[in-house]
C-alpha cells in the first residue's frame, strides 16, 4: 500500500528530513485485528527505504491506499555517542534530522554490533540500548547471553533499566515492555533477515524498525481507537500504514494540545502531529486525538473543534477494512 510521505519517511538510521515526514518503519503481517496485510511465516512484507527514498509501495498491500497527509510521525530521541567506547566503533551521522527526536543539532548513532547479523562473540548477543542515559534506545551493544535464557513469550528481566541492553532473553529476542518498578517484561522476537528484507516467523506479528533503526522487533497490531495494548505503559501508535504497541514515553506531558518530541511522546489515544495542524501549537509537534470517523458526529470527539479542528481520515483513500474509521483531530490542510 502506498503511503503518503507525511507518514512514511523511513531511514536506516533515522535520517528524517521534515517535520511532517518522519516515521519508524514497520513491515510484516497481522493477526487480523487491525490490518488486512497478510504475511506468512518467514516471509518479508516490504522493503525498507533509505533516507533519500520517497514513499514506496508494499508488495503485500494495495497501492491505492494512502495515509492522510495531515498527520505526522517521528522516530527517536537525540542519538549520542557512548562516552565509554574507545572510538573504534562504527558511527553513523544522523544528518538532516529535524522532527521529533532526530535531534535538532545532528549527532551520531553508536553501532557496536549489528542487530540483524548478530555479529557479537560467542556467548553474547547484539541488543539496542540507550547510551546517553535517556529513556529511548539509540545505540547497539554486545551483551552477555544468559546461560539459561527465557524464550519468546516468556517473562524476562533486565539489568538496570528497560533500555540498558542487558536482559535474560534468548538470542534473537529482547525484553520488551519493561516495568520500571520491577525491571520485568516479556521476551519478543527480534526481526530476522535484513533491514531491506525483514522477516517475522510469527505471522501474527509485524517487524517494527524504529529508534534510529537500532530496534527491530516483531509486534502484534493494535487498534488506536480501542487502545487495546493491554498495558497502561503501552500506546498504540501508527507506524507506516498499521498500528503497533510501543512504550509510552510521554511522562508527565502528552496530553491533548501539549508539545511532543517523539512519536511515542503522547498519552495513549493521542497522536503527535505537526505544529501547523494543532491550534496554538508552539512546539516541534503537539498531541491530538485519534477519532472515530463512524461516529454520528466525528468532529465532536475533537477537543479543539471550536477552533476549526476536524476529525479527518488517517488514510486518504481505500483504507484497510479494519482501519477505515480511523481518524485524527487536526486542522484541515
Reported for the largest beta sheet, the result is: 4 strands, antiparallel
Q: Which percent bin holds the helix content?
A: under 10%
Give Rg in angstroms: 19 Å
Please tally the helical runs, counting DSSP H or I stretches of 4 or more residues: 0
Residues in β-strands, percent: 25-35%
Mean pLDDT: 72
Question: What is the succession of H and E elements?
Answer: EEEEEEEEEEEEEEEEEEEE
Q: Numbering strands along the chain, what is their spatial order in the largest sheet?
A: 16-17-20-18
- Separation of the first and last Cα atoms: 23 Å
> Based on DSSP secondary structure assignment, what is the total number of beta strands?
20
Structural class: mainly beta
Query: Segments where pLDDT lies below 50 for 5+ residues?
Result: 1-108
Q: What's the shape?
A: elongated
Structure description:
By secondary structure, the protein is mostly beta strands. It is 0% helix and 27% strand. It has no helices and 20 strands. β10 (192-193) and β11 form a beta hairpin. The protein is elongated.
Amino acid at each position: 500500500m502506498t503511503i503518503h510521505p507525511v507518514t512514511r519517511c523511513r531511514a536506516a538510521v533515522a535520517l528524517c528530513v521534515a517535520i511532517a515526514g518522519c516515521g519508524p518503519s514497520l513491515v510484516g503481517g497481522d493477526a487480523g485485528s487491525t490490518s488486512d496485510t497478510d504475511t506468512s511465516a518467514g516471509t518479508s512484507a516490504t522493503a525498507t527505504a533509505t533516507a533519500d527514498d520517497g514513499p514506496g509501495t508494499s508488495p503485500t498491500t494495495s497501492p491505492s491506499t494512502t495515509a492522510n497527509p495531515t498527520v505526522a510521525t517521528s522516530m527517536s530521541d537525540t542519538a549520542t555517542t557512548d562516552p565509554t567506547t574507545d572510538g573504534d566503533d562504527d558511527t553513523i551521522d544522523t544528518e538532516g534530522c529535524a522532527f521529533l527526536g532526530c535531534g535538532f543539532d545532528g549527532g551520531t548513532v553508536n553501532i557496536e554490533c549489528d542487530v540483524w547479523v548478530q555479529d557479537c562473540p560467542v556467548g553474547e548477543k547484539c541488543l539496542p540500548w540507550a547510551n546517553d542515559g535517556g529513556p529511548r534506545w539509540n545505540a547497539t551493544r554486545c551483551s552477555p547471553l544468559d546461560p539459561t535464557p527465557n524464550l519468546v513469550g516468556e517473562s524476562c528481566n533486565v539489568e538496570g533499566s528497560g533500555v540498558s541492553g542487558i536482559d535474560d532473553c534468548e538470542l534473537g529476542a529482547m525484553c520488551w515492555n519493561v516495568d520500571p518498578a520491577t525491571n520485568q517484561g516479556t521476551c519478543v522476537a527480534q526481526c530476522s533477515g535484513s533491514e531491506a528484507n525483514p522477516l517475522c516467523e510469527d505471522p501474527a506479528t509485524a517487524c517494527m524498525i524504529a529508534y534510529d533503526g537500532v530496534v527491530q522487533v516483531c509486534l502484534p497490531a493494535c487498534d488506536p481507537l480501542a487502545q487495546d495494548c493491554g498495558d497502561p505503559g503501552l500506546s498504540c501508535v501508527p507506524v507506516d500504514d498499521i498500528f503497533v504497541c510501543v512504550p509510552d514515553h510521554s511522562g508527565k506531558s502528552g496530553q491533548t494540545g501539549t508539545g511532543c518530541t517523539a512519536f511515542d511522546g503522547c498519552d495513549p489515544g493521542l497522536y503527535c502531529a505537526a505544529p501547523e495542524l494543532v491550534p496554538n501549537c508552539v512546539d516541534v509537534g503537539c498531541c491530538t486525538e485519534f477519532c472515530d470517523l463512524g461516529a454520528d458526529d466525528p468532529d465532536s470527539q475533537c477537543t479543539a473543534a471550536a477552533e476549526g479542528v476536524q476529525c479527518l481520515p488517517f488514510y486518504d483513500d481505500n483504507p484497510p477494512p479494519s482501519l477505515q474509521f480511523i481518524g485524527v483531530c487536526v486542522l484541515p490542510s
